[in-house]
Design brief:
By secondary structure, this protein is of the alpha+beta class. It is 25% helix and 37% strand. 30% of the residues are buried.
Length: 175
Amino acid sequence: MIEEQVILVDENDNQIGLMPKMEAHEKALLHRAFSVFVFNDNSELMLQQRALHKYHSPGLWTNTCCSHQREGESNLEAGKRRLQEEMGFVTELEETTSFIYKAPFDNGLTEHEYDHIMIGYYNAEPNINEDEVAAWKWMNIEDVKVDMALHPDKYTAWFKIIFDKFYEFINVKKS
């Protein structure tokens, strides 16, 4: 199997190259990524618990799904693809904001990402891919914020950054 490539970018999200995903994480190079937040009609956020065998952040709770865009793939196309691959459904998505973050992990890898945040709505249960996701749940966004403050070690680095710095972009109600 060919290792997935990530899109290396500059601080303005201009593509400057491609690199195998693990190499980019080993070298802490800035690359394009996305985080999808799916809400239901009760304004609850669908959280996923990352599979226990993931190479970083295993077993931690995070947003509905996240990954890296492929070359030639739009942010929205990538978000929908990964929703299907991880959670077993697709829904319409809307881009809200983007930001750069850098988070080193205990295993020597570093996430250095230009992360695009997308929001969607869905009301059914997902059909999770157990290779990617250990568990899932709906949770009120205010309850997530409180639990994250009480138990920060249960959540992924990027999810905590998004809640801390970009809360207004994910605290939305369907109109």
